[in-house]
Write a structure and sequence with these properties.
The complex is a heterodimer. By secondary structure, chain A is an all-alpha fold. Helices cover about 75% and strands about 0% of the residues of chain A. The termini of chain A are far apart. Chain B is mostly helical. Chain B has 3 domains: about 80 residues, no CATH class; about 325 residues, Cytochrome C Oxidase, Chain A (Up-down Bundle), CATH 1.20.210; about 140 residues, no CATH class. Chain B is about 65% helix and about 0% strand. Chain B contains 19 helices and no strands. The chains are: A mainly alpha, B mainly alpha. At the A-B interface, helix 1, helix 2 and helix 6 of A face helix 8, helix 9, helix 10 and helix 19 of B.
Chain lengths: ~200, ~550
């Protein structure tokens, strides 16, 4: 019986192994997720932008603009944190598990520093500002970002615990969790930079 | 013209015992990561919601039998009825009615790229449905499925909050399902299946998924604002505090207009499959049809403000009118492709084909009334009238639901291993087609005469029209019982289908019906042209596959 599968043809084309395919799927899936979910952040920016048209000036008359000093320091902390995440991932790729753990713990510390500043900024919006969309959209955007950052930090803590338990050899097939978490943290960083520019610099 | 080229089940026959090797019904009630189970779960649950939403439509039509309020106690109760009808039909029926069963099979894949995510996306739907329906029984949302503030913020009960929560969950489900489809389509094809050899249903699902991942986050954003306004005391939609009601319309329609294509594009993919297979002819202009799906996806993002013509700044109206009319171009490409495909073909007028032809004739009416509505002066005249109701039922029922039925008659043999009853299918078609036509076509007339939508009380002069519409709607509602009976009866007693009852070339037919757990026992090799019917090469390909399935003695049956 002739099989309708032309095996020679198949061998010639070559197919990825199951593990390779899974990694390929994970990476593409993560990219699509990032492109998709950044749209929610863009939607929030559009909200901020459209609501500005309700007022003749921005911030509205009589409202003091937010001081960008604290958020700028927080942004630097977040960028450092993302850099440490990247460095940790590179350390893992060359099988330096200790370096990976140290970098990621550092990244978490910077991450929490960032969040502490944001919580402070969120809490210290004046009542006058909160009576206008200037204060409300600021709380919407920082709060929405905060929820994401908190969730990813929790995942990072989980990954660090697994890493300390020796779960990742550094081979890219068994450390997708690390790579994926790193990509989510870059996502959080990028989303914040968009918000930071819109909230504190575009008047 | 109506020649049946090949007797059903004459070739590619399977032994009965093998065809009965299908999952136990209890498997469908449990968590499963098999896309074939999940596909059926999607289909059956969506159809249940279709019946619930349809029953509500029957109540609406019963109320509209007379110009006064009689059946429904108050205008508010009527508002919540059409709100929940629209919500169920759109968010719970058409958008989730996904191709989870067919796509991996058509691609020759063992499963979706992320089987667990596939199951998770499905299992978000039942809790979301419970939340939405619970809202209806608590204190119902009254703002229509579009939930415009301030209706949805100031004048609607707590059910509106639950509505927003449920829609949020459904949006997340839709995004996860779509990511899964895109990755599956890009990564899981066999190497022989280049992007230009991909079945058109997969092209359509790819375009649909791209729309869903890009647009649905905007729904999430809009719903977040609505929830905060209702629960946390923010004022995004309250003009008194610097908010803007148009903000909702902008963001909501930036999702919901593309979502219209989420609803209809898979149906268009189904149509290309069914028309080609049952006309025994290649798809006319295959590449252009695939690209036109992408074209619709792209242009679909530029037209949203045509839903806001009457509230839009005047200088923005003309650009949106133009983009809206441009979207008729990729849609027209599909239309001409379908007509070109059946032109001169050996048409089998079976139920699947009848519903596909029904789609073709009704969707063209919906498309033309769409271009009429795109024209600004006309749109302002018929704004918020029954003309609009007629238009979107022609594209969503005449389009999507007819495609769902065509898909049901076409793929039921693959899913269950048994054929549906052909005669009942044709009776079902006659009732559905004429019931539909006489329900929704007269709405054009009453709409142009000025009958507003979303009202329970109307001018007496419209009563005769409304009685015609209601009577036809009951015929349409009755037709659903025929297909339900047919499905249940055929599931147990239908004739054995065999692997490839339609002599189709796409890969889902090159395995047993129903397919084995991993879909294919071998790695399947797709035919060089998924729609290359009528060539010697395709006959040879089918002959080889037939041989593999003859006497039930292939590897497929040795498990």
């Amino acid at each position: 019986m002739t099989s309708y599968v032309d095996r020679q043809h198949k061998a010639k084309l070559g197919q990825p192994s199951e593990a390779d395919l899974r990694l390929k799927n994970n990476r593409l899936g993560m990219t699509i997720f990032q492109i998709s979910w950044i749209m929610v952040f863009l939607a929030m920016i559009i909200v901020n932008w459209q609501l500005r048209f309700s007022y003749s000036e921005w911030p509205p008359a009589g409202i003091a603009p937010f001081d960008p000093l604290g958020p700028s320091a927080a942004t630097v902390a977040l960028l450092l944190s993302a850099l440490l995440v990247k460095r940790g991932l590179q350390a893992l790729r060359v099988k330096r598990i200790g370096g990976f753990l140290m970098d990621w713990r550092g990244a978490m510390i910077f991450g929490f520093a960032f969040m502490a500043v944001i919580v402070y900024e969120f809490a210290s919006v004046s009542d006058a500002a909160l009576a206008t969309q200037y204060g409300i959209t600021m709380r919407l955007m920082t709060g929405f970002h905060f929820v994401h950052a908190l969730a990813i930090l929790a995942v990072m803590a989980h990954v660090i615990r697994n890493g300390a338990a020796g779960r990742y050899s550094g081979d890219e097939h068994d450390s997708w969790a690390v790579e994926g978490t790193a990509k989510l943290w870059y996502f959080v960083t990028l989303a914040w930079i968009l918000f930071y520019v819109v909230l504190y610099w575009i008047r | 013209m109506a020649t049946i080229a090949v007797p059903l089940g004459a070739q590619g026959e399977q032994v009965e015992a093998e065809a009965l090797r299908r999952p136990a019904l209890s498997e469908y009630l449990r968590w499963s990561v098999d896309h074939k189970i999940i596909g059926v779960q999607y289909g059956v649950s969506a159809f249940l919601f279709f019946i619930i939403g349809g029953a509500m439509a029957m109540l609406i039509r019963l109320e509209l039998w007379t110009p006064e309020l009689d059946l429904i106690v108050s205008g508010a109760a009527y508002n919540s009825l059409f709100t929940i009808h629209g919500t169920i039909m759109i968010f719970l029926f058409i958008i989730p009615m996904w191709a989870a069963f067919g796509v991996p099979l058509q691609l020759g894949a063992k499963d979706m790229a992320f089987p667990w995510l596939n199951a998770f996306a499905f299992w978000l739907i039942p809790p979301a449905a419970v939340v939405v329906l619970l809202g209806y029984f608590v204190s119902p949302a009254e703002a229509g499925w579009t939930s415009y503030p301030p209706l949805s913020t100031l004048f609607s009960g707590d059910g509106q909050t639950l509505w927003a929560l449920g829609a949020h969950l459904l949006g997340i489900s839709s995004i996860m399902g779509s990511i899964n489809f895109i990755v599956t389509i890009f990564n899981m094809r066999p190497p022989e299946m280049t992007i230009w050899r991909m079945p058109l249903l997969c092209w359509a699902v790819l375009a649909t998924s791209i729309i869903a991942v890009m647009a649905t986050p905007f729904l999430a954003g809009a719903l977040t604002l609505l929830l905060l306004d209702r629960v946390a005391g923010t004022t995004f939609f309250d003009a008194a505090s610097g908010g803007d009601v148009l903000l909702w319309q902008n963001i909501f329609w930036f999702y919901s207009h593309p979502a219209v294509y989420i609803m209809v594009l898979p149906g268009m993919g189904v149509l290309s499959e069914v028309l080609s297979v049952h006309s025994r002819k290649p798809v006319f202009g295959y590449r252009m049809v695939g690209l036109s799906s992408m074209g619709i996806a792209f242009v679909g993002f530029t037209v949203w403000a045509h839903h806001m013509f009457t509230s839009l700044q005047p200088e923005l109206r003309i650009p949106f009118m133009i983009t809206t009319m441009i979207i008729a171009v990729p849609t027209g490409i599909k239309m001409f492709s379908w007509i070109g495909t059946i032109w001169g073909g050996k048409i089998r007028l079976n139920s699947a084909m009848l519903f596909a032809l029904g789609f073709l004739s009704l969707f063209v009416i919906g498309g033309i009334s769409g271009v009429m509505l795109a024209a600004l002066p006309f749109d302002i005249h018929v704004h918020d009238t029954y003309f609009v109701v007629s238009h979107f039922h022609f594209v969503l029922f005449g389009g999507s639901v007819f495609a769902v039925y065509a898909a049901l008659y076409h793929w039921f043999p693959k899913v269950t291993g048994r054929m549906l009853n052909e005669r009942l299918g044709q009776i079902h078609f006659v009732f559905t087609y004429f019931g539909f036509l006489f329900t929704f076509f007269p709405m054009h007339v009453v709409g142009m005469l000025g009958m507003p939508r979303r009202v329970a009380v109307y001018v007496e002069g419209f009563q005769a029209w409304n009685q015609l519409i209601s009577f036809s709607a009951f015929v349409l509602g009755f037709s659903t019982f025929i297909v339900i009976y047919n499905v249940i009866k055929s599931y147990y007693h239908g004739p054995i289908a065999g692997a490839n009852p339609w002599r189709a070339l796409t890969l889902e037919w090159q395995t047993t019906s129903p397919p084995p757990p991993m879909n294919f026992d071998d790695d399947p090799i797709p035919f060089e042209d998924p729609y290359g019917y009528g060539t010697e090469a395709s006959a040879a390909y089918l002959a080889v596959v037939d041989e593999a399935f003859s006497n039930g003695s292939t590897r497929a049956s040795e498990h």
